[in-house]
Amino acid sequence: MLRSYESMRFLIDRQMVIFDIGSAYTKFGYAGETTPRGIIKTEVKCPETKKLRKIYDYTDTEDLYQLLVEFIHSLFFKHVVVSPKDSRIVVLESPLTPSQFRDTLAKVLFRHFEIGSLMLLPTHLATISTLGTDTALVLDVGYTEATLIPVFEGIPILKAWQALPLGGYIVHKYLMESLKEIYPNVDITEKLVEDIKVRTCFVTTLERSAKLGTAEAPNPPPAVKYPGIKNINIPGEVREKAFEALWERDNDNLSIPTMILDSILKCPIDTRRPLAENILLIGGTTMAKGFASRLKAELLALVKSPLYSEKLKIQTFKFHTAPSKPNYTAWLGGAIFGSIDLPSRCLTKENYLKSNRVPDWTNLIDNQKEDSVNGEF
């Protein structure tokens, strides 16, 4: 029995651990598995104040270091339940992740927890490995922002990347303000707002949206009672308008649909049609009921508008259905990469302690020919 336990422990220790640390939620699990072992909030109880703090709400590098130490400790010993020492880790990261965050994360993993190796994977690139194709326009709408990068034949077209501060936070802010105005004596918490958003709100159609706030405004959908709390009814108007901020154009005439069209316009002309017909939506916000159909309707209307009709001769947009829920599709891509032996893409503990830096795949210093031949950064 002891030998069987030791064998199982050896197999677990040899597996790569996959972390997708998002601004709101973190997914974790093992390479080769189809779903994460768990999804938790990216927050930790501060040892000093005893209050919950979000990891990304740090004040400086030292503060971030302490938050990450507490959070990673919880991940390893409470959730993943594996010793971090000499373990192999894959971390999904957005190309827009601040260098301060990735450098501090690597320092915590290598110097505090003494992991064996670290692979940093770009989220948008890893995601398309779940589709069986190497070309896709990947739109990630998370909690704080929406980011988009086209990938053609496995190569990210970085000059066409797009990003806007549109995500679940905008929806939460609208719901929080609306519900506090309706129920001033009820404690409206972030957790309550999240639950109300998922259970009761939806993305309305383009036709109804155009009439909202006008004399021809359609009758609002029925109000619903939120289960578990007395005397809280969510008005139909609030349910319908919660996601409208994602589609409203800002002062620069930008919105989530324009992100896609502007990105396609910045791509080489021979790649535009394949990208328009291979759109992949990831991120928790894209799971809202009606999101994909509204996005497609917005795109079809925009390409016929004077803004794009002369510049973009595309009339068809197609969306992929990933083999997982959009909120952990990126994690699944990491689990696929983690099951493949890619030593040249892993930063080992020895190399990190020698150089004291994290190689950047966009930096020419870290992409020299002799390095790729030797299998080192």
Attribute tags:
single chain; 377 residues; alpha+beta; six-stranded mixed sheet; five-stranded mixed sheet; 14 helices; 38% helix; globular; disordered C terminus
Fold blueprint:
Elements: H1 2-14, E1 16-21, E2 25-30, E3 38-41, E4 43-45, E5 52-54, H2 61-80, E6 88-93, H3 99-112, E7 117-122, H4 123-127, E8 136-141, E9 146-152, E10 155-156, E11 162-164, H5 168-182, H6 190-200, H7 206-211, E12 224-225, E13 233-234, H8 236-241, H9 256-266, H10 272-276, E14 279-282, H11 291-303, H12 329-338, E15 347-348, H13 349-355, H14 369-374
Helix pairs in contact: 2-3, 5-6, 9-11
Task: Provide an overview of this structure.
This protein has helices at residues 2-14, 61-80, 99-112, 123-127, 168-182, 190-200, 206-211, 236-241, 256-266, 272-276, 291-303, 329-338, 349-355, 369-374; strands at residues 16-21, 25-30, 38-41, 43-45, 52-54, 88-93, 117-122, 136-141, 146-152, 155-156, 162-164, 224-225, 233-234, 279-282, 347-348. The longest helix is centred in the N-terminal third of the chain and has 20 residues, at 61-80. The protein is globular, with a radius of gyration of 23 Å. It has 377 residues and is an alpha+beta fold. Helix 5 (168-182) crosses helix 6 (190-200). It has a six-stranded mixed β-sheet with strand order 3-2-1-6-7-15, sandwiched between helices. The two termini are 42 Å apart. Helices cover 38% and strands 16% of the residues.
